[in-house]
Amino acid sequence: QVIPRQTCSLFTHTMVLDMYPGGKEVLLESIDGGSLFQSFLYNQVNVFMTHQSNYGNDRLGLFTFDRAMKFLYKWTNLRLVYEPPEVLGKRYFNLYPEEVEPVWSNPCLNRRHLEIWSEEKNCSSFPKFVVVGPQKTGTTALYWFLNMHPHVKSNLPSPTTFEEVQFFSGPNYFKGIDWYMSFFPTPENNTVLFEKSATYFDQKVVPKRLKTLLPSKHIVVILIDPALRAYSWYQSWKYLTKYYEEANLKLFKLLERLKKPIPEWLKKKSKKFCSLRSKSLSLFYGV
């Protein structure tokens, strides 16, 4: 959770009042009814950064806020209260619960952000298009077919979600942009990067997150007959159910043979599987 900060028009280079950009009148205008005054007026929670250098030299930080307090108390009924950062954070997110989760923007689209970005990072490492699903429409096949093209490269595989990054749709989003970019190799001049995550299609948080980080990229959606997709889901569920039930039964027998304690969840799963298999055999043999 990050509380947004307000600007007070003081930066590292604004240390001497007589050398303030545009003249000291610009700073005074901001304090006396301008942007700084309006920050207090329209925000119930304020966090200001004045930069350390402004507490020395001409002491612009102290000058600015001393004058701002006097102006506020003279012309408004506002009363300011200081609270520790932790308390301030709780108060802010109680007021604005929709801001509890961050939304990552693209640093490559902001000149100031780009200037302070590490030289090791490359804006071209963001994907040019994203395949968003939905599931069971052939997205994995498309992923492999696209990778066959010499000038098209996908994201690197994930150790947990295989060919899908699943960044915009789940907890991976809170790992940040650096984590996301680590899945994409630095492309050559004529290489097109893409990613495929079928979990993006039906998650409400995805459109806003995707639009904010990759506003000008292309979105690929595969549409097929809903009946065919439902049948594909059924076949997948049928296969995985059998696979995991048999795996659980093998684990049960192994622990039993080794005389190791068997977890309760495994006992229930194995008992259920044995019961279903017994019924199937009874029906098969006509018992």
Structural features:
single chain; 287 residues; alpha/beta; Rossmann fold; 3 domains; four-stranded parallel β-sheet; two-stranded parallel sheet; 10 helices; elongated; disordered C terminus
**Low-confidence runs of at least 5 consecutive residues:** 279-287
Gyration radius (Cα, Å) is 29 Å
Outline the biggest β-sheet: 4 strands, parallel
The tally of strands reads 6
β-strand percent reads: 5-15%
CATH superfamily of the largest domain: P-loop containing nucleotide triphosphate hydrolases
CATH class of the largest domain: Alpha Beta
What does this structure look like?
InterPro entries: Heparan_SO4_deacetylase_dom, NST/OST, P-loop_NTPase, Sulfotransferase_dom. Keywords: Disulfide bond, Glycoprotein, Hydrolase, Multifunctional enzyme, Transferase. One of its GO terms (biological process) is heparan sulfate proteoglycan biosynthetic process. This is Sulfotransferase. The chain has three domains: 17-95, no CATH class; 107-224, Rossmann fold, CATH 3.40.50; 227-283, no CATH class. It has ten helices and six strands. The chain has helices at 24-31, 35-42, 60-75, 85-95, 111-116, 139-147, 177-181, 206-213, 226-257, 264-285; strands spanning 6-7, 48-49, 129-133, 152-154, 192-196, 218-221. It has a four-stranded parallel β-sheet, with helices on one face. Helix 7 links the parallel strand 4 and strand 5. Helix 9 (226-257) packs across helix 10 (264-285). The longest helix has 32 residues, at 226-257. The radius of gyration is 29 Å and the shape is elongated. Residues 279-287 have low confidence and may be disordered.
